[in-house]
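Quick one - first record:
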Amino acid sequence: MTNPRVWSLGLDGATLALIRPWASSGHLPVLARLIDGGVSGNLRSTYPPLTGPAWSSFMTGKSPAWHGVLEFFRREEGTYRQRLNSPQDLDGHSLWRILSDAGRQVGVMGVPLTYPPEAVNGFLITGLLTSSG
């Protein structure tokens, strides 16, 4: 039995209501081929429908109420200072962590809130809000 490969593409803020007509009219030929040759579906986002909690839900399969990320930032306990959420703030394991722990090779690129990167069986290139230092 062969090990099937799975590939996922997430486009923040994109909607198939716009992508499908543009793809079928020839404006997005690569996405048209991906849609025609794979599986696609309409997104039902999180509440709140924001980038930070939505991508954290994609990572963990949990709602924001369960993974604990409600925004890009969180208030430091006992102060009014804010700090950036990180993978350590997630209450749950990411899909790539679960797959890595199961011995599967993974590649992750450009996903928000993945800095600092965790060690995986493969590669993880952090995305939006990666530190420049």
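second record:
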Amino acid sequence: MKKFSHWFCFGLSLVLLSACPKPKEGAQTLTLPDGGKIVYETKGSGDATLLFIHCWSCNRRYWDSAMAELSKNYRVVALDLRGHGESDRGRKDLKVADLAQDVDALIKQLKLNNVVLVGSSMGGSISLAAAKDNPGTVVGVVCVDTLQNVEIKTPEDLREGFLKSLEQDFRAGLAKFMPMVFAKDTDPKLIAWAVEQASKTDPQAAVSLIKDLFSLDLASWMSAVKVPIRCLNSDSSPPLGLKTSVEVNRKYADFDVVELQGSGHLPQLERPEEFNRKLRETVEGLVKK
């Protein structure tokens, strides 16, 4: 009888485990509260979830290497922001805060918890807003080549010149700008791929977002985040060449930085192995807190 009871309990356990729903993998579509649609994909499983948020005029493909590596230990999620990749386009007045609301909707729809937001460039700003809106759910923020100094604004002449080139000819403006953000030794094929991906972005959304980015008060956004903020930043951060000011940023948040030597603005593409290793180390420090 005891032997039967043992095998019965074992079999019942297997049935219950198999009945537990597993997160769906692959590309899926989420309908947002306003009716818009965004495409996202998930991989892996684990006690923590990494939610990858790409940069301006990029898409979720920029995270392919990081997703493949980090999914070995974590559940990983990447999305195409509205106006980018395969997600909806057509909104003329997109703001960074709108994209943060979309991220918030994704977190709630997927019932994510113990989340580390990983945001590249503009994705870092989005991560700050989404972290503020999800206390208790988001346990840390990792920003990639951004937040070098939240008290510094982009010089006005650079802002105006960049916007003018985008408004005159979006694709030509991107073709001129994108090579400037990579390290000098970057494979030209990678740069060409990045330009091609960027050219798929909704021009109206891109221009609206870059205008909004230039106006953000990132110091106040950072102050509102009550979880650790970590940056993986280039040591040269082209095209502006800014160094990360830990002292300034620590006035506003629990902040620290890891500098990536010899990388440009997109280390997840330029130095994927080093980037993935540093990202893993950073995430491990956040989820163990």
